[in-house]
Give the backbone structure.
Amino acid sequence: MKYAVISAAVTDEIRFADGTVKIVPGGAGIYALSGIKLWEDDVEIVTGVGEDYDSLHGKWYKKNHISMEGLKIKDAKSPYTYIQYFEDGEREESPKYGSEHFYKLETKGEELKPYMESANGIYIFKNIDPDFWKPVLEQKKISKAKVLWEIAADATKIENLEAVEKIVKQLNAFSINMTEAKNLFGISEKDKMIKKLQSWGMELVFLRQGAKGAIMITPQEVVEVPSQPNVNVVDPTGGGNSSTGGVLCGLVQGYSAEICGKMGSLSAAMCISQHGVPDMITKEMREAAMKKAGIVR
């Protein structure tokens, strides 16, 4: 297995303003998984689910030829989120079984050991929980996998800056959006944020700017990559997760920072073009994405 995604897999029940309902696979992990799947077939998500998950979403995995081996049954029910859309375009989310149930199913740090030993690339969506990171960072010392951390928004506070910096300096790459970076550093000037992120000396920092694109930061360069043009944005949910998955693929495959950024923008464009992730991620979609990214294999 080349890629492992460490994040939640949930069910999103989308309730539209006109009363219609759509039930789709959701969660940060599913979007990151899809973002990687656009470029690579050998990827699986590692998280806890309920006994009901296969009946809810097994067809989607089978249709897309994605392994479900990383899904560990930890409860009778899988995480389930109600997403209510309103006529003004606003939305609100609420977990059906509560936040404690959600956290119970999360992947524990020690569960990553076999993936740290075998994967080429690992995506982690997480806050700064020391119980999670301690075993992960111990394994990282002897692992050849490139590990990219997309920080959870609730961890991006200035009082957490020291802890965040301690973690990222032991990893390969880091993903954060502009608002989160402002909160983490306590500053609003983009140039100052870029300098601070660059001072960490990471292989790659992916500073996301939503519709404005992204800034790719390495110790040697800073490259701005625009978002994809002419995208029909149906639902921006998962854009950051999916783009980060695409960037991880580029990093593992040794592409330039600019190409990594293009891969991220193409993964995001794919995932925000409908409610939920695409029903199918096809060979034709991959070939078209590779052409747009300027990748020749």
The radius of gyration is 18 Å.
